[in-house]
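Reposting from the mailing list since nobody answered there.

I have sequence plus structure tokens for a pair of proteins and want to know whether others read the tokens the same way I do. The first protein:
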Amino acid sequence: MVKFMQKVPAGTFLFPMLLSALIYTFFPGVFNIGGVTEAFLGGDHTTFLIAMITFFSGIGLDVKGLGKLFKRHGVLFIVKLILAIGLSFLYMTLFGQEGILGINAMAFTIVMSSINPALYLSLVGSYGEDIDTGAFGITSIFAIPVLPLFIYSFQGGGEFDWMPILSTLIPFFVGMFLGNIDKDFNDIFKGGIAAVVPLLGWKVGYGLNLLDALQASLVGIVLVIIFYVIMSLMVVTDTLVLKNDGVAAGSMLGVANASSAFPAMIAASVPAAQPYVSDATAQILATAIITILVTPIIVNKLYEKAHGQDDKKKNQQKA
């Protein structure tokens, strides 16, 4: 079974996620019995798993490799920020909060601001380089409502809270500190990321209602197409400007399912956005599910184009 999952792009993440999503769709409270079972199989404590992976990513990163990390991923994140912030403001200016094609401004802003860190980690683990996993902590910032809240706060002239960004990065720097002062920490936690990814996949899925996503699938497909067209500029930057294979940038083309909770958070701070919460939530959920299924195919094609089938098989065996 494990070998079969490894043959599918991001399979060790996707299969547990789809199984738990299927269970949640039809039996949403089946594991709500308290105690260890609910903690293990329920949808809570995802943040702890993300913190663990962020910590493991830091441990495995040599300080000497920081320059390479920022040179590549720093550029990609800057491109992501420019596209998300610039186009969100432009969308609101041109179409208002109601948007166009059934896509309201809140859904557009949140989707453009999102990266699925679990999907990213799974894909770079199979197709990327070791340095790519070091960027996991930064991708996690795009899985919390920091950027969309910043956009709405800036638009409304409100204050912005920097604490979520600091909170996300602290486990990464703690891990990096320990891993560099004593290399034996690498031996202790070696394989930690690979062990946690299937568990994270399960946690991510247990909270996805596939029927709700299906109802918003048509608008979700339109939103996904727009997302891929715009964010493909990251892949162009990675391949043509940075002269890489595009795997790292392609692995960032996912929408975090947690982003579907952001409309309610934004509406709590921006009451004018309240009427759009329901539609935005459904559209973002549909977009998250579609990108989880499609993005691995895109990354697989990018890798094959750059390296061929033989290297792909080696990487899958490594993963």
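The second protein, same order (residues first, tokens after):
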Amino acid sequence: MAIKIHAFVFLGLVLSLISVASAISGTATYYTVYTPSACYGFQDQGVMIAAASDALYENGAACGRMYKVRCTGPTNAGVPQPCRGEVTVKIVDRCPSPGCQSTIDLSQEAFNIIADPAAGKINIDYTQV
């Protein structure tokens, strides 16, 4: 019986490491204009939304994808500890180059959940869910 318990504990540790290892590092900013969006036009998609950089957008293939985004730290010294947690967002828009300054441009509401908005730009880990 003790061997089975150890096997389950070991399996749980391995699975937790796999999920951490599959997270991708990037940066996040926030924006306040939600409509019209590149993916849904004037259809309201709520407030837990984001715009994808060209690398993620894939000519519209990212539309509707859900990402779990976790703040990992600041990108500047202005707000040394901006992080508060994580949020799941839906890609509804494109954050086009060269103006896009991040991997994921979160809605202001989503950004406020994971970080102090005074930071403006943060380091993140993100995973498609």
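Reply #1 (J.P.):
I read it the same way you do. The mean pLDDT is 88.
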